[in-house]
Amino acid sequence: MNTFRTTIICLFLCVFNSYAQSIQDIIDKVNIDTLALTIQEFSGEIPTVVDGNTVTILNREQANNDLAADYLVQKLEALDNITINDQQFDSNGRNIIATQLGKTNPNDIYIICAHYDTVADYCADDNATGTAAVLEAARLLSTQCLDNTIVYALWDEEEIGLNGSFFYATEAANNGDNILGVLNLDMMGYDGDAPGSQEIMNLI
Ligand SMILES: [Zn+2]
Question: The whole model's pTM is what?
Answer without folding.
Answer: 0.86
